[in-house]
Amino acid sequence: MKLYIYEHCPFCSRARMAFGLKEVPVELSVVMANDAETPVRMIGRKALPILERDDGSFMGESLDIVHYVDHLGEPVFDGPGDPALDNWGKDAWPLAAKLFIPRFTKGDFAELATAEAREAYRLREAEDLGDLEALMTGTDGFMAALRPKLEALAPLLDGRETVGISDILLWPILRSLSIVRDLPFPGPVRSYAERLEQRSGVPLLFDQAM
Fold it and tell me: Rounded to the nearest 5°, which phi and psi values hold at 121?
């Protein structure tokens, strides 16, 4: 099987996590950010991740891919979610995105390896979020607003060892936030993020924090 991804993409991270946690082998293929033809040919629209199955058929939608991978063996992610974690992610996402998306446009990702691809991605995100440089300038305020949310998350993750569908939804948000320099991750949040990094094989982004 082959999984078509953007390296920065939190939705792609969901699918990558599922393969890693289930220990199901998959080939990763990065699609350039300005390449609309490839995903449109596969699923009719420009959206990733896309899974190419062994029979040559294509599947989009990150959680559909997670479900498919999960059922290749004993299901792990089929149980009920954790409402507290799910609600945290929904609440934190709009604020978190203002921090990580502008940085994604500047990051070292294979899908942004050409000037044309990077500019196409930057323009797409600017259309959704507005002035990305203004968002970068507002970093201190966004971090101050996010800090108590991360502190509230810490007791929910302290000692958490089980992995379910809520982790598939939550961890990619934390991975995305790891690109924000000096954002304080409380101890249990950092430990959780690093533990799932190790178990899934999907790298965090602390090494290119900005």
Answer: -65, -45
- Phi/psi for 20 (5° steps) reads -65, -45
Asked, for residue 76, whether it belongs to a domain, the answer is no
Nearest-angstrom CA–CA distance, 154 and 164: 18
**Number of domains forming the structure of the chain:** 2
Q: 60 and 90, same structural domain? A: no
Strands 58-59 and 50-52, how do they pair? antiparallel
d(C-alpha 176, C-alpha 80), whole Å: 24
Q: Hey, which residues does 3 pair with through a beta bridge?
A: 28, 51
Decide if 77 is inside a domain. no
pLDDT digits 0-9 by tens, 71-115: 998 898 987 899 999 999 999 999 999 999 999 999 999 999 999
Q: What is the dihedral of CA 114, 118, 121, 125, to 10 degrees?
A: 180
182 lies in the same domain as 96: yes
